[in-house]
């Protein structure tokens, strides 16, 4: 299986903190959420512990996006619908808003409904401004710092989709525009086989 490529080792290292904090796995993809303020579409505080033992497809959106974000949501929904019931129960989807001033939990709920998303295994997140900016910086969602200076936010954000394993490790980063639905579905099945 070729889920993990050498280039991804660089990405994994990029998520490691400058200094370790007790009780937090410093190699986890979720580390940037540590002590950040994010809530889901129901207004409930988000904790990465909610995703424990799940394979997660993680990406970034804003609800006023008129092109890439809706297309990406639809593609991810196709991935979800392509999974067997047993595999579907092991996969969770997370969409994080990059426009926290607009995308309140109420707005995210309406967006999910408009996109025909069943939210039992799909979480939409929004955060306070500082938490969102810290996450954007940590994951370089607008490119390297020099690129980010000239980015038109939130339009120019990364369209990548991140596959996280049940232990919180980054396993793959997909180009999300367009998303290869069959490849993602296949690799979820392959990843699941490692945990049988």
Report on this structure.
- This protein has 196 residues and is α/β, with parallel strands linked by helices.
- The model is unreliable at 1-22 and 147-151 (pLDDT under 50).
- The longest helix has 15 residues, at 68-82.
- The chain has a six-stranded mixed beta sheet with strand order 1-4-3-2-5-6.
- It has seven helices and six strands.
In terms of per-residue confidence, which ranges show pLDDT below 50 for 5 or more consecutive residues? 1-22, 147-151
How do the strands of the widest beta sheet line up side by side? 1-4-3-2-5-6
Provide a count of the helices.
Answer: 7
Number of DSSP strand runs: 6
Distance between the termini: 15 Å
Which features characterize this protein?
single chain, six-stranded mixed sheet, 7 helices, 34% helix
Present the secondary structure layout.
Blueprint lengths: L5 H9 L23 E3 L14 E7 L6 H15 L2 H4 L2 E7 L7 H10 L7 E6 L1 H11 L5 H5 L11 E4 L5 E5 L6 H13 L3
Parallel strand pairs: 2-3, 3-4
Antiparallel strand pairs: 1-4, 2-5, 5-6
Helix pairs in contact: 2-7
